[in-house]
Amino acid sequence: MKALKKVIQNLDPKFEKGGKWEKMYPLYETLSTFLFTPKHVTEQGSHIRDGVDLKRTMFMVVIAMVPALLFGIYNTGHWHYELQSYLNPEQYGAYSDYLTGFGDKVLYGVLQVLPIIIVSYGVGLAIEFVFGFVRGHGLHEGFLVSGMLIPLIMPADVPLWMVGVATAFAVVIGKEVFGGTGMNIVNIALTARAFLFFAYPTAMSGDKVWKSGTSDVIAQNGGVLPDGASGATALGDMASFVGDSPMVAGEALSASMSSADLLQKFEGAYDPLHAIIGMIPGSVGETSVIAILLGAGLLLYTGVASWRIILSFFAGGFAFALLMNLIGANAYMDMPAYYHLIIGGFAFGAVFMATDPVTASQTQYGKLWYGFLGGGLAILIRVLNPAYPEGVMLAILFMNIMAPLIDHYVVQANITRRKKRFKTA
Amino acid sequence: MSKAVRLKKGLDIKLLGEADQVKVEAKQPTMVALKPSDFHGLIPKVILKEGEKVKRGEVVFYDKYNKDVKFVSPVTGTISEILRGEKRRILEIRISVAATDEAVQVNPVDPSSISREEVKSTMLANGLWPFVKQRPLDKIADPSVTPKSIFISAFDSAPLAPDYDFILHGQDQFFQHGLNALAKLTDGKVNITLNGKGASDECFQNAKNVEINKISGKHPAGNVGTQIHHFDPIDKGEFVFTLNPQDVVTIGKFFAEGQFDASRIVALTGSEVEASARKYYKTIIGARLDTIIDGSLTNDNVRVVSGNALTGKAVEKDGFLGFYDAHITVIPEGNEHKFFLTEGWLAPGFDKYSSHRLFPTWLTPNKKRRLDTNLNGEQRGFVVTGEMEKVLPFDILPMQLIKAIMVNDIDAMEQLGIYEIAPEDFALCEYVCTSKIAIQEKIREGLDVIEEECM
Question: ∠ CA(B328), CA(B344), CA(B300), 5° rounding?
Answer without folding.
Answer: 35
